[in-house]
Design a protein that fits this description.
Elements lengths: L1 H6 L5 H24 L6 H11 L28 E3 L19 H11 L6 H18 L4 E3 L4 E2 L4 E2 L4 H11 L6 H7 L17 H10 L7 H8 L1 H13 L30 H9 L1 H9 L18 H17 L10 H22 L5 H22 L5 E10 L17 E4 L5 E4 L1 E9 L6 E7 L20 H16 L4 E9 L7 E6 L6 H14 L8 H4 L6 H4 L2 H12 L8 H7 L8
Parallel strand pairs: 1-2, 9-10
Antiparallel strand pairs: 3-4, 5-8, 6-7, 8-9, 10-11
Helix pairs in contact: 9-10, 11-12, 13-14, 13-15, 14-15, 17-21
């Protein structure tokens, strides 16, 4: 009963009545057991047969309605016209299969020896024919016999039952006719795809009759719009997507609300990930940050992998954070030989704790990623042991965000950081910075920002320092840190931003940007904000770059189609709403052919 209540799918009145009928029978059985105790019934067998025994929404014969019943009770309604359907040779009479344990011959011998009547397959066949003859004796008026002449399931021809042949012999008064004579005398088959559309019982049959007719269906556009408006809209959407016009079917919001504009007070507070999503694929930004579409969680288990890339990166960040935390205010740099065991112990302890919350599929998978973590720690320590000119001062600083780590830093603030744009507007920003070092040599109040990356460096190999808006983290973080430092230490400045790749993929690679190289950031952010404000959420024209890890391919469709459609619309210079995206894409020099 609990299983039916919780998991039975109810879709319509028939399902609802069936569920209530089953539950009522089960409740009645429960009441009997409580009142009389255990019954002499095989309960599992009773439950197994219950679905076949319970009748729902049944009724007796009613005026103006077709009455459907079985062979045993047919003819009792006194109707003037009777139709008997399903009389193909595979359905009636049902083939009598012998019991494989006790064969018919053995049953007959046992019946004679024990003076009992064990049923046989032959007797079952005889009983079916007997019931059929009783049915005919009860009928009055015209009787129509029919059979299915074709199996749709396996596309094979079917033949009439022997009882139809017997009826034909009686009607024709010719005992010598056979199945071929019977089939040849029948009228053309009647089906749910009638030869004449006027004989259709419903809209589905009408469409089938048109599709199966020799001539084409006329005025399909009008028919689609009238009867299937969703298909008509889909056809129109497909047509418009194939043009150079930027429409709502491509991601254009004709009257964008102010809540989309990051420069408005009611607009969204921007993060690095949101800005970079706008730069890579505005449609991705729209799905994720405007519509809030979240793809289903991937519950598949990779037996060879313990942590995904994001989880491994978080684990490595935690290890580096705890290790460097020990050195804040102490002598820096660490010594590789002296401190190697320390950082590896931290890594092992963190990995074991992570394993408790995210079990590894196998010991081999755990050990493989533990070794990768150890290697990243060694690369990290080797680099840090050579840093003589700067010391870590702030770790995991939350600027414009809620504090992420319990220790916090003096720079932490949940207040939004304002970033001024060239057009006279501004946006609100926030971010969490892995590490800020103070430079010992050089100008006073000079700082370096570090951001740890355990993956690939492909995002930072473009000739455009902001990769057409896809990579703005370095510029945004320099602005955030300088704003926060100025409040605590007036006159401070960030001289260098460093991406540090200690993972196996890049093995200690450093990608660095000097502050003066980032002067074009306000213009790039302005263009990104314009895309959102105008509601111009076109899909990317470079799916090979932007769709590799996208969670929405089922929505967008084939990458090559998306690419061709986006390229045509971006190439339409008369489309002002795509001017900002076009300008961003043109920041990167075109490859020579």
């Amino acid at each position: 009963k609990r299983f039916l209540t919780l998991f039975a799918r109810v879709d319509g009145k028939l399902d609802e009545a069936a569920l209530e009928g089953l539950l009522m029978r089960i409740r009645d059985m429960e009441s009997m057991v409580r009142q009389w105790g255990p019954l002499n019934i095989e309960m599992l067998k009773w439950l197994g047969n219950l679905a076949q025994e319970v009748q729902v929404m049944g009724s007796g014969p009613k005026p103006g309605a077709i009455y459907v019943t079985g062979i045993e009770s047919g003819g009792l309604s006194g109707r003037k016209h009777t139709f008997i359907v399903g009389l193909d040779d595979g359905r009636f009479p049902a083939v009598g299969m012998q019991d494989p344990v006790i064969l018919d011959s053995e049953r007959e011998s046992l019946s004679r020896a024990t003076s009992t009547m064990l049923p046989t397959a032959k007797e079952g066949l005889t009983l079916q024919l007997q019931k059929f003859s009783y049915l005919f004796s009860r009928l009055s008026g015209p009787v129509t016999l029919s059979y299915s002449c074709k199996s749709i399931a396996d596309d094979r021809e079917m033949f009439p039952s022997p009882v139809m042949l017997s009826a034909y012999r009686i009607i024709s008064q010719n005992r010598t006719v056979d199945i071929n004579d019977l089939v040849g005398s029948l009228q053309p088959p009647v089906s749910f795809a009638p030869l004449e559309s006027g004989k259709s019982l419903d809209m589905k049959e009408w469409w089938l009759s048109k599709l199966c007719a020799p001539g084409p269906v006329l005025d399909t556009d009008r028919l689609l719009k009238s009867h299937f408006p969703h298909l008509a809209r889909g056809k129109e959407a497909a047509r418009l997507r194939g043009t150079s016009e930027f429409t709502m079917y491509d991601g254009c919001i004709n009257s964008p609300d102010k809540s989309l504009d990051p420069t408005e007070d009611v607009g969204p507070r921007l993060s690095v990930s949101r800005l970079e999503a706008l730069g890579a694929c505005p449609r991705h930004y729209f799905f994720s940050n405007v519509l809030g579409i979240e793809p289903p969680e991937d519950v598949s288990v990779d037996k060879d992998t313990w942590l995904n890339d994001a989880q491994f990166g978080t684990l490595a960040h935690d290890v580096f954070y705890e290790f460097v935390s020990q050195w804040l205010g102490n002598n820096w740099p660490p010594d590789f030989s002296r401190d190697l065991d320390n950082i590896l112990d931290i890594a092992q302890d963190k990995a074991k704790r992570e394993r408790k919350s995210i079990p590894s599929p196998s010991e081999a998978a755990f050990q493989q990623q533990l070794e990768a973590l150890f290697r990243a720690c060694k690369t990290f320590l080797a680099h840090e042991s050579k840093q003589l000119d700067a010391k870590p001062l702030f770790l995991e600083a939350s600027i414009g965000l809620k504090r992420g780590y319990s220790k916090g830093t003096p720079l932490d603030t949940a207040d939004e950081i304002i970033f001024d744009l060239p057009g006279g507007t501004s946006v609100r920003l926030g971010g969490r910075i892995d590490r800020i070092d103070k430079v010992d040599s050089g100008s006073p109040g000079e700082y370096i920002i570090y951001d740890y990356k355990t993956g690939s460096s492909y995002k930072f190999r473009s000739k455009d320092i902001f990769w057409c808006g896809r990579s703005v983290q370095h510029g945004i973080y320099v602005h955030l840190v300088e704003q926060a430092l100025q409040k605590q230490f007036p006159g401070s400045r960030v001289s260098l931003f460093t991406y540090f790749f200690p993972g196996i993929k890049e093995d200690g690679l450093l990608i660095q940007y000097k502050s003066y190289q980032l002067s074009d950031l306000p213009k790039v952010v302005q263009l990104l904000c314009n895309i959102a404000a105008k509601g111009a959420f076109l899909g990317t024209n470079q799916p090979g770059t932007d769709c590799t890890y996208c969670p929405y391919p089922e929505i967008c469709g084939k990458a090559e189609v998306v690419e061709a459609q986006a390229a045509a619309k971006l190439g339409n210079i008369n489309e002002p709403r795509l001017r900002d995206m076009r300008e961003l894409r043109n920041r990167e020099p075109k490859k020579s052919k």
